[in-house]
Automatic annotation (TrEMBL), chains A, B, C, D, E, F:
InterPro entries: 4CMD/NDH-1_regulator, AhpD-like, CMD-like. This is 4-carboxymuconolactone decarboxylase. Gene3D superfamilies: AhpD-like. Residues 47-127 form the Carboxymuconolactone decarboxylase-like domain. Pfam families: CMD. It comes from the Bacteria.
């Protein structure tokens, strides 16, 4: 997933921008193939949105010092569970959490805890998304 | 904040229940004085709600293995920021996060990241709650 | 609170409309003085909004057969608790619930149950609104 | 649906706990086969979550005196409609409402009223979930 | 789509009511065939809900002077994107926006801007709904 | 409000960045003094958040062609009304809407329309914020 070889990078005039490059590498590190798929899926409708996710989301925010990537992904899984309307993004970030070293058990604990703050339905729907991702990756909680 | 000496414990028939005791000690560890205040504030209107926060929230959920308290508080700060309607609880858990070793910078990074998932207004309002808690405790980000 | 004597009715060309009259009487029955205050507060900024609350909210919806007023107010207290951003309206409808025969205990039980569906913060903030209304009316749960 | 014969009860060390037993019987009374299905669906991913739904949700909250089961289900249908992101749980509780004696018309009236508090889209999507449940059970509003 | 020839109008005692007629014509102007489909879909479950959408939604609100239809549809697309739980209604109103002269680019810009206020997931899910509607109509942003 | 003379610009290493400069001028054009106040209020707690609002919010998004500023502000007022938890930001953007030529009546119509999509409480609370802003500026709907 090198930015020089992938379609959004090639077609994007911002390609040589350091924010774009930093964001692209961070996105690849965190979300891997799933992140690439989100970026690709935007090319036909709103390619600049893909660029903002890379530049602002991953180049600016996820690249900041002060909070390690494991904690960032735990925070994101918690928030997407609590919001309730973001199942596709939650699945991407459950992949992301596992990619950066959060354990399957930690993902499940984070989601279960959300029952306290956002209610059981939000936590249940997130657990069912989690089960799909775990099945796809062949992992399971300890 | 020993359960034997504090009002909710004394007036509560569940006092000797091990879930209640475990929850009480976990609540004291995490939320300290601010947690006590929430419990006290419920005595006149819904004392069983205080009991459920202690038993289910802290005895069942926060006492689970599999996710350390630092990560649990980062998840909670993320979720309460994203929900947007829970400023009093967010302030309690910013205290809680700092109590269990999350740094002021990590709290701010967690909140800032929420701009990506819940929008800038939710993140801004959480930062203003954060500023209040930091002022009260005399801490500041590095 | 006869519509003929109150400002919104007098200044409103819809006054003789049967939907408006039915709505006005239903609003008076349910929300009493607090409902009147909401209607009055809209006169300087959006008087037609007051008219729609009366005509559509109370003339069309609350006047429908098929669900008694007690159940309607329990449903409304539940929803406003769960939404989290509607404390002023929740206070009006806690008054409304008590006005149509919901007991203080039933109001509190309805709110506490919302911890399951919308999380503890939403339920806690609603309980604190409830405490204010109960204090104002001098009532308390059994 | 006796707890002694069903898988979650058998595999669960909490089986003899009175809270668990009370919760299990209340869940069976309210949500019946649909509740069983939710509990079963959690066994592979987060079995303790199933236990908390039984113990806290149904053993603690739904078993409380002070609000009858019909009113509790009306409150839940209202809240799940208003939240908007909980269609699977809404369908379970439309079954639950009908199981404890709420009429089909009362379910529809509760949902329609939510247009006032959470907007028409939330109410419409809930009505479409309602139509599915009614079709499955072969019931219809009067 | 004349109200005299279409099922909801024929079966509805409110058919000759001027609010109903005004609303019906406004709904036809804005949402066209998609609006008709929503109205039809409610006939078997809650026909009065269809009537309220026509009378209150389109007869009262969308028929008001003071804000042109283009601006009204931009506001609606923005709100449905931000709410996150209303994809079917968002698709209807993307059709509606295009019907009243909002350009495909303006629809996309409105949705993209929501990333600032409701977060990237809400904006992304709305863009994917947008892509479906654009494909159905054979339009694309400039 | 020239970026060369105001504190965030001076203390900010990004000052000469064209995105920052474009964003700063756009923020000044749209939100004026109220926008400046938001930026200033972040200096003690999260100055980079202020920079992101300027660079991403106003430099990237609000500076895009394809949707005029009047429409952008109508979309923002609609979304902040619908979200319900963002009253401070809504007040800033009611100022912003009026600054770029949206009339007071158009602001009110946009907010009232949100009753359809987010419910009456969200619309009412926004109208009360609107009344404050109108009073502060000495304007009123026609």
């Amino acid at each position: 997933m090198d930015p020089a070889n992938s379609s959004p990078a090639n077609s994007n005039p911002a390609y040589n921008d350091p924010r774009y490059q930093a964001g692209w590498h961070k996105l690849a590190e965190v979300d891997g193939e799933q992140g690439q798929r989100v970026i690709d899926s935007l090319q036909g409708i709103a390619p600049d949105m893909a660029r903002y996710i890379i530049e602002f989301g991953f180049g600016d925010i996820y690249s900041r010092p002060g909070l390690d990537l494991r904690s960032r992904e735990i925070a994101t899984v918690a928030a997407l569970t609590a919001l309730g309307h973001a199942q596709p993004q939650l699945r991407v970030h459950i992949h992301g959490a596992l990619n950066v070293g959060v354990t399957p058990t930690e993902v499940i604990e984070t989601i279960m805890q959300m029952a306290l703050y956002a209610g059981f339905p939000a936590a249940l729907n997130a657990l069912f998304s989690c089960r799909e991702v775990f099945a796809e990756r062949g992992v399971s909680p300890a």
